[in-house]
Design goal:
29% of the residues lie in helices and 18% in strands. It is an alpha/beta fold. It has a domain at 15-62 and 97-140: Ribosomal protein L13 (Ribosomal Protein L13p, Chain: A), CATH 3.90.1180. It has a 4-stranded parallel sheet, covered by helices on one side. It is globular and about 55 Å long.
Length: 142
Amino acid sequence: MKTEFVKPALAERKWFVIDAEGKVLGRVAAKAASIVRGKEKAVYAPHQEVGDFVVVVNAGKIVVTGAKTQQKLYHRHSGYVGGLKTVNFEKLISRHPTAPLENAIKGMLPKGPLGRKLLKNVKVYAGEAHPHSAQNPTAIDL
């Protein structure tokens, strides 16, 4: 038997929309990462981009469980000595409503060129509106 690989250019790619309002951050991110990676398809291959596109709306209304609004920390570094900046979930979501979800999805994708390519297939919006209605995305319930 031979393993049949589908060329990424010939793979059938669909669009999905996830409404994140009131949903838990990790569950939405895990579902989006799985769809973008293509793990839910029969033609999945870990080294190919055969996954679908995901549009996440209402990312600004996503929730975390427990005391994570105060305790979950996000770090970034400027590159200079003493340049470590730390902000908690509550402040980050008030300044950049899409950042926590984008960071979570990015962390669940492979590192390297393939992961960066897959991340371009995820579109995250803070509000209800998105410009991808022409692709007729299918709604996913979590």
